[in-house]
User: Fold this.
Amino acid sequence: GFFTSMQDFLADNLGWYYILISNVYLFLIVIFLLGKWRNLKLGSPEQKPEYSLWAWFAMLFSAGMGIGLVFYAVAEPVLHFIHPPIATTNEIIKAKQAIAVTFYHWGLHAWSIYALTGLVLAFFAFRYNQAFDICAGVEVLFKRKFSSFAKTFVNSLAVIATSFGLATTLSYGSLQISSGLNHVFSIPESKIVNFILIAITVFLASLSVCLGMDKGVKRLSEINLGIAAFLLFFVFFSANKIPLMDSFIENLGYYISQFVHLSSWTEAYESSNWQNSWTIFYLSWWIAWAPFVGMFIAKISKGRTIKEYILGVIIVPVLVTFFWMNTFGTAALSIELLGAADLHQAVEENISTAIFIFLDHFALSKQTSILAVASVMIFFVTSADSGAIVLDILASQGKDDNSPWQRVYWVVLVGLIAAILLNFGGMHALQMASILFALPFSFILLAMGIGLLRELERCKEVSLDQSK
Assistant:
C-alpha cells in the first residue's frame, strides 16, 4: 500500500518531469550521434567488435525487451483500442492511435534511456580500462569529488532496483508460461507450477552463467531470435484481413506525425488517470531498469564506434520493435474489428493469456503456442542470466572477472525473491518499489550524460576522422 501510494503521488505530481526528462535523454543521444566524436571507438582505436552484428542484436533484444514484446504485443494495442487515451468514436483513428501509443511506449524514448546508460559505462570502461562504474560520468561532472559513501549509495540503488525489478519480471514471466502450458496442455495453473518453473529457470540460468557469455547468453539469444522471427513472419503472412506492410507504413507515418504531441502530452486538460497507468509507468520503469540493461549493453559493445553503437542500439531495435508490435497489434485489432469478443475479454481478464488466445485465430495454433511458450522461457532464462552478470558487476564495484559461482548466487537469490513474491502476493508492491528508484536514478543518468559530454570535449585526442 505504501509503495503504491508513493508511486501514485509521483505520477500525479511529477508526471511532467518523467515526460520532460525522457525527451532530454533522447536529445543527448542525438548530440552524441551527430557530434564530432561520433567515430571514436569504445575501446582502443584498433579494437575490433567482440561479437558479430547478428549475435549483438540478438543479445540486445534478449536483455532489453524480449520478454515484454511477447507479453504485450497483443495485449497493449487491444487495451488502447478498447480504452483509448484520447476518446474518439472513429474506429480507424482508435486503431491508429492504439498502435502509435504502443510505438511511443516501446520506441525511441525507451531505447534512448538504455543507450545513454550503456554508452557512458562503455566509454569509460573500454576507453580508459576502468571498471564498469555507474558513477563514472558523474565524477567527471563533479571534477571527481565524489565520496565513497555517495558511490556506494548510487551502486546500492542500482543493485536494489535491478534485483527487485528482475525478481518481479521472473514472477510475471512464470505466470505467462504457466498460462501457456494451461492453454496448450491443460496443465492447471497453480503456485506449485509457478515454483517449478522458477526453479527450472534458476537451474538453466545458473548453467548458462557457468558456461560464460559466448556459450550461454549469446547462444540462447541467437536461438530465440530465430524462434521470434519465425513467429513474426508466420503471423505476418497468415493475417490477411489487413495488409500488414501497408499498415506498418501508415502506422509508422501516423506515429511520426504525432511524435511531438505524444512526447509532450501531459494530460493537463483531461480529467483522466490514463497516462499515470501507462506512459508514466513505462517511462519510470525504463529508467529503473537502465542500470541493468545499460550495463549489459555496455558489456557486449566493446569495439563499436559511438555512431555504430547508437545506430545499433537505437535505430535497428526500434524499427524491429515497431514491426513486431505492428504485426501482432494490427492483426489483433483486425480480429477485434471483426467482432471476435474472446480476444479483448481474455486481455481484460488475464493479459498473460492474450498471445495464446490470439494464436488460436490462426492455423497451427497449438504448434505456434508451444513456440511462444518456448520463446518466453528462453527470454526468461536470458533475463535471469544477464541480470545475474550485471548484479555481480554492480555488487563487485565494477569488477567483471569474478567466479561463476558468485553469479550463480545472484541467480538463486533473485529466484528465491520471485518465489516468495508469488507465494505472498507481493509482486505489485515490489514492482512499485523498484520504480520508485527511477526518480533518484533519473538525476544520476542526466549527470552521467552531461559528464560524458564534458569528457569528450576535454579529450584532446578526439579528431574529426579517427583513421588519421
About this structure: Confidence is low (pLDDT under 50) at residues 462-468.
